[in-house]
Design brief:
Distance between the termini: 52 Å
Number of helices: 8
Structural class: alpha+beta
Largest sheet: 10 strands, mixed
Radius of gyration: 22 Å
Order of helices and strands: EEEEHHHHHEEEHEHEHE
Number of strands: 10
Strand content: 25-35%
């Protein structure tokens, strides 16, 4: 019997803590019957708080998985583009003309493998670099100044505490103007679509407003379509990138990944 599950949540806010009441529904395509699994809904107490050293292992794991999950969407978006479909088919032609099945497979296979390698290394390389640099010392790189901060989203799910998200902001100076740059926005896949992204972004904007910053800026990559849609919904607008990119130029070109820069004035 084929079964689908749906998670439905209603969240209420009280200061820095908000509570989500979630119900899990199952639907059987054979019986067209929908029922609530269990008599008691899942209740989550969610708190956005500053990072603590004891959070490190959970935060690094969440950061790594959040970056690496972009590899497959990146590869899929690249390889189904009309240009790359044309190139893949064109690379089959030499083998076909030489009546060589091996040739018709090896060349397009090598091309597809190169695209996947570029997509993989763009994100895996970023993870390797960040785990050895700024994420290795979160307090020193994100919390050593009063105008910087690194938050974690902590949830108590049925009595068990979990780290389900992170976000950071770093103060920047541009002439006489001070602004905040949003970094490390990550939400565990198990807890998305609960409004956490909006709440975390609002936490950053409130922090920046309190310090008199003129705006919040950020950069993400084009495969992060859900994140871009969230920022647009919250009033961020697209701007030319002025912060520079850490992506390899040739890899990002072949992977068809672009940097998406956005900002919101406060």
């Amino acid at each position: 019997m084929e079964t689908f599950t749906t998670l439905t949540c209603f969240c209420t806010e009280s200061g820095e803590i908000f509570t989500c009441h979630c119900w899990i529904f199952c639907s059987s395509t054979r019986t067209s019957f929908t029922s609530c699994l269990g008599n008691v809904p899942l209740v989550m107490q969610v708190l956005i708080r500053p990072y603590r050293p004891s959070d490190k292992d959970a935060v690094l794991t969440l950061f790594s998985s959040g970056i690496l999950e972009h590899i497959h969407p990146c590869f899929y978006n690249a390889i189904i583009s009309p240009l790359y479909i044309t190139i893949t088919l064109a690379l089959c032609v030499p083998g076909y003309l030489l009546d060589s099945m091996l040739g018709a497979v090896v060349l397009p296979g090598a091309w597809v493998g190169l695209i996947y390698y570029c997509c993989h290394e763009l994100y895996a390389g970023l993870v390797r670099e960040k785990l050895q640099t700024d994420m290795q010392d979160i307090p020193g790189n994100f919390m050593s100044r009063p105008d910087d901060c690194f938050w974690v989203v902590e949830a108590e799910v049925d009595g068990r505490v979990q780290i389900m998200g992170t976000v950071a902001v770093v103060a920047k100076q541009s002439g006489k103007e001070r602004h905040g740059e949003l970094f490390r926005m990550t939400i565990s896949p198990s807890y998305r679509r609960l409004g956490l992204g909006s709440k975390m972004t609002q936490t950053v904007m409130d922090f920046c407003k309190e310090r008199g910053f003129s705006k919040v800026v950020l950069e993400t990559s084009s495969p992060a379509t859900a994140a871009v849609a969230l920022y647009e919904k919250l009033g961020f607008r697209h701007v030319p990138s002025q912060m520079g990119t850490q992506l390899s130029v040739w890899m990002s070109t072949l992977a068809r990944v672009t940097v998406v820069a956005m900002e919101k004035h406060l």
